[in-house]
Give the backbone structure.
Amino acid sequence: MANLPAVTTSYFLHAADLHLGAQLKSLGTRVSAEKAENIRREVRRVFDDLVNVAIERKVDFVVLAGDVYDQAENDPAAQLRVNAGFKRLGDAGIKVFMVHGNHDPMNVAQRANISNLPTNVTVFDHGQPQSYEVTMSNGVVATVAGVSFEKADEKNNLAVRFAGLTGAPLIAVMHANVGGSTDHDPYAPCTPSDLMATHVNYWALGHIHIRSVNGSQNKWWVYPGNLQGRSTKAAECGPKGVMVVPVDQAGSVLTPEFVPCDRARFERVVVDAATFTTVAEILERAVSAVLDRVTANGNMPVLASVEITGATEAHADLAVVDVLGQLIERTEDSMGDGQVIKVVNSTRSRTNIADVRASNTIAAKAVGVLDALAADPLKEVPVVDNAPATAKKYVNKRDDSGAQVHRQSILDDARELLVDVLWGAK
């Protein structure tokens, strides 16, 4: 028998934020029951695709960086799918290392689940990081270390607890908010400097749903993003999947490769209406933009949010037309199980704001109030007492300096709305 070539590069797989058991409630009310069930059935298969990628790429181990389940109580069906997938990995000789995050913290229920896991699965406890050695197929002995959340609202900096660990390479698995992303809760907060101050060669991170590869050869910190998009929120759009990470014979961690695993893709489509004068023209452009996005995603079902922007003479007409219904009707034959599920009208009238300010009108007085508020960055945007909780949360969201994150956009939107409503009321 001929000698087989020696393996020079080995691999591991990094995934996070699987949120298995999530109900995918973001499809809206205009998606048919049949189509919604088709999409949900496909989405339930994404973990199987993760397992397929691991086996096909012959990885030595898989690391899961938290929020494997969407709720601490879990979904029994999701647990069965996970355990079956873990067994397939074990049968292929692939180990699994996982931590728990804010959606599935290490509580009593989780400990009961752990006792039922296949023997190839190692779950990191909360407290201090634990570490294990894994001999990879190219002979490199990697050290995999990790720590779980004890409770959902973990406020401690977990990264600094890895400071004394060593390995060649050392892979650290952690659920955390690195750098204070305002789009996600500030759980296990830390900084890039905290990560780089350790001996860790690859930080396998979870919590942030936007894929992010940072660092350089043998000194990485990476968010793979979530396994399946769940809405048209920016962090949920575009391809979703896992990172396949190479390790050479010297033990250096090389550039990770993204591999998609999602079964339905959420997309945001922006249509600039500034050059159009009629709703018909805007609809034609929107249909074309949506179908272009469908083509770009191949056979993937696309669930699209369409935002129409710009100053246009059709602004008032758009407000009284069922744009969503029109787009669904004109695209459904080309979208399979996909659909346009949301339309956001962000257009504005072509009214010259300078003319409004110079006039002696109610609109001018209202704009003056907003201008005064905009001129004083220390003054808070007020919120009426009976505003919805979601609106209050949006308005009051602040960055690390304490400034209101959405302040300017709120004032700009309010100014345009007031002009639209009040201009002409001389």
